[in-house]
Amino acid sequence: xxxxxxxxxxxxxxxxxxxxxxxxxIPIPVVIDGRSYDEGVDITTEDFxxxxxxxxxxxxxxxxxxxxxxNLYNSLADEGYDxxxxxxxxxxxxxxxxxxxxxxxxxxxxxxxxxxxxITVKLLGYLAIQASKMAAKNYxxxxxxxxxxxxxxxxxxxxxxxxxxxxxxxxxxxxxxxFIGGILKIKPLLTFxxxxxxxxxxxxxxxxxxxxxxxxxxxxxxxxxxxxxxxxLILNANDPEGGNAWTKQIAQQYPNMTxxxxxFGPVIGTHLGEKALALAWLRDFEKxxxx
Length: 291
Hints:
Layout: E1 3-8, H1 15-20, E2 23-26, E3 29-32, E4 35-38, H2 45-54, E5 60-61, H3 66-78, E6 83-88, H4 96-103, E7 111-116, H5 121-136, H6 141-152, E8 156-160, H7 165-170, E9 187-192, E10 199-205, H8 208-225, E11 230-236, H9 240-253, E12 258-263, H10 266-272, E13 277-283, H11 285-288
Parallel strand pairs: 1-2, 1-6, 6-7, 11-12
Antiparallel strand pairs: 3-4, 3-5, 8-9, 8-13, 9-10, 11-13
Helix pairs in contact: 5-6
C-alpha cells in the first residue's frame, strides 16, 4: 500500500516541511471585498492583515473548489498512490471536511480517507507531519489513524483575542451571547471545547497582561498533570513582537521543553482578528514517538 498525505493551508507548514515530508497542501480561499485569494498562494499573511485593516467589508472564507480536490487526488493516483489520508481543519469551523466526506466515495482511482483534525493551525500541521512519517515507514491506514486519534487527544490550547467582533460576525463562537456585553473591555480566553469541538469563550480577563498570566497558569497545571513531556506552541496574529516576548518568557519557565512559534494566517486570522495570541500544547512526539 502506498499512502499519500494531504492537508490544507491552515496547517501553516513551512515550504521546507512540505518538501521534506512530501505533503500536498490544499489552499483555502479567503474573500476580501469580493475578491477571493488562495491562502499561501496569492496572498501573504502580511498582505492579509494590511487588507483586513483597510477592507470595506468583513472578510470571509470559503471551501476549495471540489474539482480541484478531485484533480489532486486523481493526480496522486497517477503517481502510484492507492490511498490518501486527507487531514483538514476542524469541521466545526469549516464545511470542507464534510464536503470531502461526501465526494470521497465517488473517486474511483484512489481511496480517500478524510480525517477531521478537530483543530487547525500548526497543530494540524504536526498531525500531517506525523502521518507522513508513518506512511513513509509503511504503517497501515488503521495504524496511522489510531495514532492520530491518540496524539490529537493530547492537544489543548487557549486563545487570547483582542476583539471578539470577528468571531461573533463570522459565527464561529458558539457561546457569543455570554460575552458580547463587555466586548470592548475584556480579553476573553477561548479554546476548542473537548466535547463539541467548537470554539468557546470560557473566561473573562480584564487586561492582556492578566490574560497572558492566566493562560500561563492553565498551562502550568496541564504540564504538572501530564504523564508525558509536553511540546508548546506560541501563535500570533500579525503580532511577532508579542509572540517573541511570550515565547521567551515561556522558555525561561520551561528550559527543557520544546517550544515553537507559528502564526494565524489569513483564513484563521479572518475569524480571530489581528493581535490574537495563543498558547497550545500536546505530547512532544519528537521525544516520545519514534518513526
